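Hi, here's the filled form for the chain we discussed.

Project: internal
Contact: R.S.
Residues: 151
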Amino acid sequence: MEQMMWDKLGRGLMLAGVMLGLAGAAPPPAADLSVNLAGLRSGKGVVRVCLTQSSARFMECKETGAATLNVPAAKAAQLSLAKLRPGNYALLVIHDENGNGKLDMTLGIPREGFGFSNNPAIHMRPPRLNEVRFNLAPGASAQTVRMRYVL
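And the returned structure, exactly as it came back:
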């Protein structure tokens, strides 16, 4: 009887040790991303940064993405997104010069600035996900985004 009691106590202590070990396990490493903007036309309006892992939403700058950031354009030369989950992402940057909350278009042509991760060539279509996707590794990373202005 005494041996059975010691066996139960031993199993209980072992389980408690495993649970404490799991609770004390280090969280997965985080990634920090610096976004450097090149060619920002003016300090007017707002710059919106949209970072997402969603292939269906990478052209939509909505709150449902992995991270969004709105910064006055006058302070937007270098931006930071911290404590991200490592993985594959797409980055869209919009320079909303008039501050109306959207990328203004004329006949399907952007009237305000835009840019993407990997700085893909401009075509008569939006870039494809494989042209803008990049891998964000744990630790510090940087993306330089060249702003484009068509009109």
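Let me know if anything looks off before we file it.
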